Amino acid sequence: MPERRKLQPKKSDKTDKRQKTDIRNGHLRFGLLGKSVVQSLPIGVVAFDPDLKIIEANSQAAKLIELGDYIDKSLAKGTDDKIQPGWTEQLKSVVSTGKTCGFDSVNYTLNDKTKSLRIVCTPLKKAKTARNLGGTVIIEDISEKVNIQRQLANAERLAAVGKLASKVAHELNNPMDGILRYINLAMRIVEQENLEKPKEYLTQ
């Protein structure tokens, strides 16, 4: 009988498995202390693999976005389904290029409430080889900061309008002051000349 040959897995399959194993082992090496620190952070942290599948997320992330199986879909759920390809492209670019990207003041709706989020996407690398294993998404709720900025902007606009109104009033007062002086002068002349009819017009 001919000897059976064992099928060797494809190189790409081996690479994918090794990457996912590295991610899991990385989390194991991180240990309980690291997990405790991540869970206690006031910001959301989500780790994902090269396929954008969520590997791990802290409790704060679950409060800020609707977490599913994939990070791009999770981000798209609360923003706009039409821009999901945008999230997918950005996150895959982070994994492939190893470059960080960020988004300020992203309006995200969760449970009928819209929050303003700052979202930063960073690559996740293996320490020794610097090989990209996926990435992390850091999410911060900046709704309060955005509201304060809006209030300050409104206050500045009101102050500018007030200054403009003051200048306009000043410019209007100049000709009005001249008109009043002429009226007073005319009144004195009329009184001196004892002219009743013009006096009647000027006092109306």
UniProtKB/TrEMBL annotation:
This is PAS fold-4 domain-containing protein. GO terms for molecular function: phosphorelay sensor kinase activity. Residues 39-146 form the PAS fold-4 domain. Residues 1-21 are annotated as: Disordered. It holds the Pfam family PAS_4.
